[in-house]
Predict the structure.
Amino acid sequence: MAKQSPVVGRYVTIDVDGCEYKVFYLRNGSGVPLVCQHTAGCHNHQWMGLLEDPDITANYDVIAYDLARHGKSDPPHNREWWKEEYLLTAEHFMNFITAFCEALELDRPIFMGSSFGGNVALQLALHHPDKFRAVIPVEAAEHAPGFFLDLWRHPHANAAQVCGSGVWDLMAPQSPEQDRWQTWHYYTQGAEVFKGDLHFYSIDHDMRGQLGNIDTRRCPVIMMTGTYDYLTPPEATEATARQIPGGIYIEMEDIGHFPMSENYPLFAVYLKEALRIIESKS
Amino acid sequence: MVMSVRDWATRFSEASDRDQTIGAMAKYFTCTYLWDMGTAKVIVEMIDGKVYRINVDPAPMDAYDFALRASPQTWREFARPIPAPMFHGIWSASFRRDLKIEGNTLALMQNLRNFTVQFELLRKVGVPV
């Protein structure tokens, strides 16, 4: 008898700012929808540990999508996208997420993302607090400059290896070797979009001076960062959470910038605490 | 007791040349780099994935593609079996600690995968400072 995963993949077509996107998503579970955004230059397989976790999927409808241009989600079908540089903006990113959630008719999902997915979670809490039950920004901060770099897709270097190895030490050395190399492998697949994603991450995402306007009574914010994240170090996330009235910060020991794929069992310990806090506020 | 730089060079060469991960992907791993550890400096010359030579007493005019410079304390932290946060790689240390990456960084990027694996051999081999 073959070992079958309970995770199911499907496509949905959405319109975002005039772009027609055919979006691939993975889904498993029932209960409160928990929508998951992968990191920049990656895809939804980063969330496979969560998608297959029976402790979570017993009570949560876990949905992990590939952002357009990532994984199995194509660039827009109705545009000559190859004639313009891909530079992701906060507005388009948020419009994509809200359109996706509306297309699936999700009732105020919890939104969780890591890295640039964490940063957009903060944006959603500020701009769309009534559309989400709560947000869990992972490895996020109010501002994350310094990573929008030409080296990610320099034609004289092997961009796949540069992207995979350039983020290698965003992971903790004690995370399981199999999982770290799996995460590295994911990163070799997104080299063409990584830099454009980082336009949002390091340039367009700048919430300095705006965090006090997040209303956590409407949309609770639970931030989590690993101690081995050099890009958004724990002190940056903690400083961000402190500026959000009612914002909560959880520090994750012995893990890095890709907690959901580099060491899911350890990440799950912290995630369950975040979900418990959200339940207590609902 | 700090090992001599010559002993370190022998151990590092052997560890690199028999590393299975480097062996699997390093056919074109060719570059020359300087590691400046403060009280010790070495120039490692890689050709087609093998350590061709380690210059343990570099002269000012000896050439290399790129250099990594940091304090002896930082190099010792790199060499712990499980380094503390921010000492666990060249990017974390250059963002958050005193590591400087200089020279032709394109050469570093062209060889980044194998160089990264090789750098982490320090956790097994140690450092001569």
In short: DSSP finds seven helices and five strands in chain B.
